[in-house]
Amino acid sequence: MRLFSASSSALARRAKLEEKLTADQALDLLDDDFDDDDTTSAGHHMLREQRQVLYYLRLIEHEMPKLVVMFSLDTAYRKPFIPPTSETPLIVRSLDYAGEEHPVTAKRVIVVAVADLPLQDSFAVHKLKLLAGPRWTPNAPTDAGVSHGTSWVDGYVKISCENFPNPAMNLKWASDALDRLVLEANRNSDAFKDVPPDLRHVRSKAAKAKRGDHLRGRLLNRPSMAAHFPQEWLPSNTNRH
Fold first, then answer.
1. 102 Cβ partners below 8 Å, 6+ apart?
2. Which of 34, 163, 168, 192 is the most exposed place for a label (fewest CB within 10 A)?
């Protein structure tokens, strides 16, 4: 039995944790028995998950009403979707790791259809394909955000840059490179009309995909079931029943 005003030496040491402890005193604290006054590591993990859920619940409660129409009043945070027009043909792609720092987050990639560029004639289109080199492909890049049903027409140009630490600087360099490419293509556009475009990079990529696109002239004219299927092979309406 001890008085209510008395306390053990272990509790006395814990009350002075804010003071600077010596190495021997720190070892004495580690030797203390577990008093069942704290939860386990799994319990701390569960509490952390609950705090994270509460954080998003608070966002839903206090921030989400700003993004929706409440009581028939449009908020200042709502913006209507405006589809891109012919005056804004560039598709800009960026990478993000949910707020985590990464060197590739400063990279910017632009993709544009050659048919949407201000080229003066077909010779300028052909010269631009020659100048772009491996940056030109007859079909849209898979990561460009272009629908697979979109017509290829004259192909697409893809330019990327990650040489600068600022994303805006990388985007500006890629945009300026495209401007220089268009300017040079319109200058003496018929000078390279007899030079065929280099398709080695397209054939190499198609061969690595192992889908047969590099065989029998499918590189630029891939057959489709709807356009190339013989109509006489289709069953007639009378034979369907």
1. 95
2. 34
Residues 39 and 19: their CA atoms lie apart, in Å, by 25
The helix (run of H) or strand (run of E) holding residue 174 is helix 167-186
36: left (phi over 0), alpha (psi -120 to 50) or beta: left
- Residue 29: which H helix or E strand, with range? helix 23-30
- The whole-angstrom distance between residue 41's C-alpha and the CA centroid of its chain comes to 36
Task: Give one DSSP letter per residue of 67-127, joined into a string.
Answer: TS-BTTB--TT--------TT---EEEE---TT---GGGG-EEEEEEGGGS---SHHHHHH
Please write the tens of the pLDDT for every residue from 67-126.
665 544 555 556 777 777 777 888 898 888 877 888 889 999 999 989 889 898 889 999
